[in-house]
Design brief:
Helix content is 43%, strand content 15%. The protein is of the alpha/beta class. The strands form two sheets. Strands 3-2-1-4-5-6-8 form a seven-stranded parallel β-sheet, with helices on both faces. It has a two-stranded parallel ribbon with strand order 7-9. The longest helix is centred in the N-terminal third of the chain and has 17 residues. The protein starts with a strand and ends with a helix. Bound molecules: NADP nicotinamide-adenine-dinucleotide phosphate (NAP).
């Protein structure tokens, strides 16, 4: 039996859908914090168990009879609560007799990273490695799917793509393909105590995204470098919440520092096919 946490989120649900093409739904347990939300979204036959990352007793009950847990990292933004949540899941898995835990981390996790999620990924990886559980770590790069959020609504009418990432490059991956690679790993052997960089090549800069947008839309778009302060001021004007502004600024700084420029062939091997590239993605989203 395989349990997937965060099963009502994008990556968890996509992984469950990819899994149902490989194994019987009766072998899959969706662990969710809100069973109501799961009611009409999960494939037929997948069992639902309640388990909030802040509720050790519920997690322990949810992991009974489970051999492998996929821990989808929390959407909590604060570092310490996020680490605590992940530790609760790891502790409960161990206590319940789970053999193998797969964790979705980030490329180049570091306590010093400007990217807000990175220190908690680093701490979780360390905790998992020391837990005694067999582990596999998916060090995920940024999703291609976040590009529309980075592009924002103002870019296309203005023809300017603003960022403070300078010429920092990112090896983006499609979330659905990460889910497919997770399903492949969950249903095959040879992944014990492995750490995988989930970061296909090539890596792209904001100049590349601007060029791709120009090609996909037929309208000229050019990259406009700005400072982090200018971005923050503009987002504040649009009433964007402060934690989200911090997340975005930290992410841009980490891009500039090259933290997401981590292209390797590992992802393609785990996926079993060529990952979607930037041009194909932008054509799908913005193509005429
Ligand atoms: N690489 C990237 O570009 C990128 C982008 C965004 C996020 N991420 C990270 O990758 C994770 C998965 O991505 P995603 O797109 O699937 O994000 P998502 O759609 O926001 O899903 C996050 C999932 O975590 C669950 N969750 C959050 N707090 C929880 C708690 N206390 N107890 C139990 N479940 C909890 C959420 O439950 P509910 O459904 O009840 O809300 C949701 O199912 C995110 O959580 C985040 O850590 C990565």
């Amino acid at each position: 039996m395989i349990a997937i946490t965060g099963a009502t989120g994008h990556l968890g649900l996509a992984t469950i859908k990819a899994l149902t093409a490989k194994i019987a739904p009766s072998e899959i347990v969706a662990v969710v914090r809100d069973p109501q939300k799961a009611a009409n979204t999960l494939p037929q036959g997948v069992a639902v168990r309640q388990g909030d990352y802040n509720d050790p007793a519920a997690l322990l009950a949810a992991f009974q009879g489970i051999e492998t847990v996929l821990l989808i990292s929390s959407s909590e933004l604060e570092t310490e609560p996020r680490i605590r949540e992940h530790r609760n899941v790891i502790d409960a898995a161990k206590q319940a007799g789970v053999r193998h835990l797969i964790y979705t981390s980030v490329v180049n996790p570091s306590p010093e990273s400007a990217f807000g999620a990175s220190p908690s990924h680093f701490a979780t990886e360390e905790y998992l490695k020391d837990s005694g559980l067999t582990y596999t770590v998916f060090r995920n790069t940024l999703y291609l799917d976040i590009i529309p959020m980075l592009v924002g609504e103002g870019t296309l009418p203005s023809g300017k793509l603003y960022s403070s990432a300078d010429d920092g490059k990112v090896s983006y991956a499609l979330r659905e393909e990460i889910a497919q690679a997770l399903a492949n790993v969950l249903t095959s052997e040879g992944h014990d105590n492995q750490i995988y960089d989930i970061a296909p090549g090539p890596a792209y800069s904001f100049q590349d995204i601007a060029a791709g947008l120009s090609e996909a839309t037929g309208q000229p778009v050019e990259y406009a470098p700005v400072s982090g302060e200018e971005i923050a001021a503009s987002l504040r004007e649009h009433q964007v919440p402060e934690p989200f502004i911090n997340l975005l600024l930290g992410m841009s700084k980490a891009m500039k520092d090259g933290e997401f420029d981590a292209a390797s062939s590992t992802f393609e091997k785990l996926l079993g096919s060529k990952p979607t590239d930037l041009k194909t993605y932008l054509a799908g989203v913005y193509g005429k």
